[in-house]
Structure formats: structure tokens, C-alpha cells
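Table S2 (continued). Query chain:
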Amino acid sequence: MTQQRKFQGVWIPANLWLDRTMSITEKVMLAEIDSLEDKVRGCYASNAYFAEFFGLSISRVSEIISSLAAKKLVDVQLIRDGKRIVERQIRVLPNPFGKPNTPSEKTANPFGKGDEPPSENTKGNSTSMNNTGEKDSKRRGDSGDPEFEEAWELCPKRAGGNSKADALKAWRARRAAGVEAARMIDGVRRYATFCRLTNRIGTEYVKQAATFFGPSLHFDDDWTPPDDTGRAPRSPAPEPGHSHRDQGAGDGRPTVEYI
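Corresponding output:
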């Protein structure tokens, strides 16, 4: 981790410190993300860095960041080069640490100045921005869960449709049962490799994501590909309506995915 920090000590605003909806780990994680945030790239520290810094497991770090994103306290972007994630950028929202939302120093701070409460106009603007962000998120089909989005992106395409909403419901059920996100993501990777090597991608032989994340725990299967004689025949490519992933611009440049 070579990212430089604008570190002058730890300061957490009273409204965040006294927020009963946030755990203490979420509060200090938010402060650490803010201290590492770069004006251009945001905070690009890895989960491994946070795990070592806080003495937590990588999966626990992932859960905390997902929770902060779900609470609209941070914005997470995945920078891609084709299908490969090359960097994750995290930015603190909506300015709980008093930074302007834009380069203009005159931008209003939603949390007011010092002990001064935010004005009614500021409150209205803040609510409007949050509502707009939620609408944009819904239009993009975002779940607010970066780990699920990563797993969904890895899911092999199938013919006949693949409901993201049902997949998210199954994912959340497994997470509520104590299944680690990393465990399911690793399972998706194995399954995607299996489907590729057995020519199943784009066919009805691919499991629906809701089934894969369901109570049968298919993500725990080994998914070792059989020999050539056991391969399924290749079916025609699915119709455009069945695709659930943005294939990118196709010009070789990294793309940005907002989650």
C-alpha cells in the first residue's frame, strides 16, 4: 500500500460519532477511507490493506465497505480493463468530513460549519442529491452491494434469461445465514471456468444465478471440468435481451462501473 494520506490526526464529526445506525468499525473505516482519499482516484486501498491495518479479516472488511455503500456514505467504482478489475476507487459521500462536493470552495457543506446546524436549503439540496443518486442507482440496476456486483459480473451468460433480482435475493439469504461473500465469489469463478471449458456459456445448461446462490450451495461444488467427451454441445448465442452485462466500448480502454 503506497497511497499517500492527508493525515493530520483522526477527527470524526459529532453527527457521525453519535450516529447509532453505524457501528464503531464503520465509523473508523470511514475516517480511514477519507484520510486516504486522492482528489483524482479516490481511495484505492485494497481490502488486504484495510484488513492488515485494522486487524480484521478481508471478508469482514468487504462487509464493512458494502455496508457503507448501502448507507450512501461512500461511492464505490470498479475500474475495468475488459472484464478484469484493475482498481477499486472509494469516495466518501455526502461530505461528512467537510470537503466540497465539487472543486469549488463555495460549495455548501451538508453538515454545516462547526457547531452550526445545516440550513434548511442545504438540507433540501442534500435530500435532492440523495434521491437523485438513488434513482440513478435503480436505473443502472445496482444492488448497492459491491461484492454481489462482482459476483454477478462473473456469472456466465445463459440462454433463457437470468434474473438479477432473484439472484440478489438468494445472495442476501446466504449472507444472512453467515456465508462469506468471498466464498461465493470464488465459487462463481470456478463455475465460470467450468462453463467456459465445457462450452456451456450462452446455453440453457448454465445455472441461473438464483439457483447457484440458493440453499443447495452450488458455489461450494468443485466444478472440475470433465474430459472432452463430457462436454455439452455449444448452443447458439443468446439473444441480446438475455445479456446482463455491459460489454464495454470494445476499444481496449478501461471502463468505469458505478456500483
